[in-house]
Design a protein that fits this description.
It is a single chain. The protein is an alpha/beta fold. It is built from ten helices and 14 strands. The strands form two sheets. Strands 1, 2, 6, 7, 8, 9, 10, 11, 12, 13 and 14 form an eleven-stranded mixed sheet that branches. Strand 4 and strand 5 form a beta hairpin. The longest helix has 13 residues. The chain starts with a helix and ends in a 5-residue tail after the last helix. 38% of the residues are buried.
């Protein structure tokens, strides 16, 4: 696993904060915290094509957390399938990439309190007319779905849209969420399931080439992940609660889901 990490990790992007905690939150005295992410899930975290910089809701949230509990954050990049095992093994202090809080994952890592609740939606090409909901998609054996193995969209696709067979050949597996969206745009697949926040981000940036159809398929809560027993969980939970109380979370939602234009 360490060899895999070394092969996939990109150059670290470091944010150092000189702002100490203000007294009502834990003060971690500038402690260095290594956060790993995927940079493939807009608008939560992604590489902006206009600036080539890693940006997003989670980056802004982590900067705020760092200020409030006085930590120095260093970022690393890794693929989704390696993230939970790597954090579980203690190779990184925190993982962030729109990770759904699930009981099976809690056996391997600790979660923060939720920082966002999202709903699963169906992302399709802008000119799609063959289906408009999950039932009509499932009824046409020629239609294909993209998914990352082990993710919430994969399991929703298997059990809520299709027949419960995790080896169903209609599900085409991709290493990253972005690769699945590119396959959708290219016509290699016909559907990508995603949380509504990321889906809306892609639709906004697509200039009409993508759209969302059908009813929402369910809700999911996102949290940061930590090695089991991490002493960072309580301080970061305290910061999340503080950011929720003072309106910072709402401001981030407005910035990234309403105001921000990817590449613009």
């Amino acid at each position: 696993m360490r060899a895999l990490i070394a092969a996939t990790a990109l150059s670290a992007l470091t944010f150092a904060t000189a702002v100490s905690a203000d007294g009502h939150l834990p003060n971690l005295d500038g402690r260095e915290v290594v956060v790993v992410t995927e940079n493939a899930y807009p608008p939560l975290q992604f590489v902006d094509p206009s600036s080539s910089e890693a940006v997003g809701w989670e980056y802004d949230a982590m900067v705020e957390i760092a200020k409030r509990i006085n930590i120095t954050v260093t970022y690393e990049n890794i693929s989704w399938d390696a993230m939970i095992p790597a954090v579980s093994e203690g190779q990184f202090d925190v993982g962030m990439t729109g990770i759904t809080i699930r009981e099976d994952r809690k056996e391997k890592v600790d979660f923060s309190d939720k920082y966002m609740t999202s709903e699963m939606v169906m992302l399709v090409r802008g000119d799609e007319e063959r289906f408009g909901d999950s039932k009509s998609f499932a009824a046409d054996d020629d239609l294909l779905m993209a998914a990352q193995p082990g993710t919430t969209p994969f399991y929703v696709g298997v059990y809520d849209v299709l027949d419960g067979d995790e080896a169903n050949p209609r599900i085409k597996l991709f290493e990253t969420f972005g690769a699945g969206v590119q396959a959708l745009r290219a016509g290699d697949v016909d559907l990508v399931l995603t949380d509504g926040t990321a889906g809306n981000g892609y639709v906004e940036a697509s200039e009409g080439k993508l759209k969302i159809v059908g009813d929402k398929l369910g809700t999911e809560d996102f949290g940061f992940i930590f090695p089991k027993g991490s002493d960072l969980v309580d301080p970061i939970n305290a910061a999340i609660a503080d950011m929720t109380k003072d309106g910072t979370i709402d401001a981030l939602n407005k910035k990234w889901f309403l105001d921000y234009k990817i590449g613009g």
